[in-house]
Amino acid sequence: MDSIEALFYSVLSELIDRYEQVLTAVELTITDQEEKALSDPSRETIQYLSTLSRQLIVFRRHFWRVRDVVNFLSHMEKDQNEVKYIQMAYDNISHLVELVESYRDTINSVRDLYIANISLEMKDTMRTLTIFASILLPLTLVASIYGMNGLDLNSLAKIPSGFIAVLISMAVIMSAMIYLFKKKKWIILRGNKALPKDN
Fold this sequence. Notes:
The chain has 199 residues and is an all-alpha fold. Helix content is 81%, strand content 0%. It has 2 domains: 3-122, Magnesium transport protein CorA, transmembrane region (Methane Monooxygenase Hydroxylase, Chain G, domain 1, Up-down Bundle), CATH 1.20.58.340; 148-183.
């Protein structure tokens, strides 16, 4: 093997080792971002993951081009020892490409995890708001009924006919809404239902 070829192979091997170190740092960074997505999701996390994904795309294109060059060299060489070494370099670069692909999949998984965590937080917020609304709705109903014009609280024996019509209308509307919600299965009645028996 000539000294120039030995130098070329040494440089190529060193470059592959350096890129492996860079990808190891990327893997550790993705792990840190995954922990942040679980513990404290924020917009900075998802923006950082997007930047990291774009950088991995650049890495992948670069590795593809280098792999094509090494593949071309492996077909040009006649010496079996040199071809064997070039094939080893080609396998190492292919391994780097596979690492980049796996890291991109991991980033997509972290994004899904971030979205799921945000959805859970939103669900908790909506549940809290629903609890407050459930507390205030009966109070609003009572205040609206006794705030009607024409209803005298001092003489409840003489209930106006309009008041009775309003109560009946409210009962009909409430019953219709409950029936509609049950039909669309928005209201789940938890009863003691018998489980189907196994044949």
